Amino acid sequence: MKARISEKFRTLFGHDGDFFASAGRINLIGEHTDYNGGYVFPGAIDKGIMAEIELNGSDRVHAYSLDLDEYVEFGLKEEDAPSQSWARYIFGVCREIIKRGGQIGGFNTVFAGDVPLGAGMSSSAALESTFAFALNFLYDLGIDKFELARIGQATEHNYCGVKCGIMDQFASIFGRKGNLMRLDCKTMEYKYYPFDPKGYRLVLLDSVVKHELASSAYNKRRESCERAAAAIRHNHPEVEFLRDARKEWLEEVRTVISEEDYRRAEYVIGEVQRVLDVCDALERGDYETVGKKMYETHYGMSRLYEVSCEELDFLNDIAKECGVTGSRVMGGGFGGCTINLVKNELHDEFIARAIEAFKEKFGHEPKVYDVVISDGARKLE
Ligand code: GLA
């Protein structure tokens, strides 16, 4: 990928720039908890975005997407927003840096990626993090890592219409090879967990479906959670986020909020606790419990939070039938992947059966990705 980027960069701009990269992510457990102030447990992966960048001394950005074979130029003022969605991510990062007082100018860039799009591995966070990290480095802005993650998150909010939490950008900025990270999204305390489950593998099964309107459905989930938290706050003023609420407190407002908001909140309160249970289990090397919690998450995401879909439920059922230790829909939902914790000896049989059964039912094969936990945003030599 580096050689292809470099060749194109020379053709377009006549010389060489610096190389930067960042990563997509997986999440072992803790889904839709981040914007509720809860815990998440992600790690960066070996699939990401790579960009060559050089400052060009003007006030314009010249950007080329190698994968889409598309060239876009834009300025750095609010009214200069490009219409191409990939370019809006880069533009948004620039704007968010400028809003924070960062003095940046134009640059030339060519970039490419290998995070499967729409698979729930957060290719967009990888793109945002690459450019936030690179501009911070090239302009020596001194922005700390959390703020770099927030710049990516604010890009999603303000330029891409997704009111996401911080997990994806956190993972792609802070990711460290071989480690998952537990992040408390309220206090922003985090801890690295070396992750090397002896005898097991983590594998992703990508349904290769992405349902329309995923971002508006995502925003609606967030609103449900905020309404439920506000109702609970009436009785318990200490509840800032749903994460602070106890199940009994949710029961107190059951008749006040809608049945739908109740189900959403029930899922979130359970999920926050599941992350903590999984951390305890990992410390004991108890992967059976980790897996059991993953199935519970799937059930909650499917029946209570309603962000799964037929294809993902099907993949989850097959995992269960095959005796896979843990399986669940990963990421925002509405398509994308399941993440599976599989015993080594079961791996090949499970994958073969899943591919065959899925193809028979849906007419196409799911894609299979082995998870390799890798470094996040960085400068390449
Ligand atoms: C998307 C969002 C994250 C998070 C997950 C669900 O990936 O970008 O902030 O909410 O969905 O856990």
Overall spatial form: globular
**Total number of beta strands:** 13
Write the element-wise H/E pattern from the N-terminal end onward.
HEEEEEHEHHHEEEHHHHHEEHEE
* Biggest pleated sheet: 6 strands, mixed
The count of helical stretches stands at 11
Query: Hetero groups bound?
Result: alpha-D-galactopyranose
Helix/strand/pairing category: alpha+beta
Low-confidence stretches are none
- CA(first)-CA(last) distance: 14 Å
Question: How much helix is in the residues?
Answer: 40-55%
* Percent of residues in β-strands: 15-25%
Kindly report the spatial arrangement of strands forming the biggest sheet: 5-4-6-3-1-13
EC number: 2.7.1.6
Family: Belongs to the GHMP kinase family. GalK subfamily.
Keywords: ATP-binding, Carbohydrate metabolism, Cytoplasm, Galactose metabolism, Kinase, Magnesium, Metal-binding, Nucleotide-binding, Transferase
GO cellular component, one term: cytosol
Explain what you see:
The structure is a single chain. The protein is of the alpha+beta class and about 375 residues long. It is built from eleven helices and 13 strands. The strands form three sheets. Strands 5-4-6-3-1-13 form a six-stranded mixed beta sheet, with helices on both faces. The protein has a four-stranded antiparallel beta sheet with strand order 10-11-9-12. It has a three-stranded antiparallel beta sheet with strand order 2-7-8, with helices on one face. Strand 4 and strand 5 form a beta hairpin. Helix 2 crosses helix 4 and helix 3 crosses helix 4. The longest helix is centred in the last third of the chain and has 26 residues. It is globular. The model has no long low-confidence stretch (mean pLDDT about 95). The chain binds alpha-D-galactopyranose. The site of alpha-D-galactopyranose has 11 residues, from helix 5.
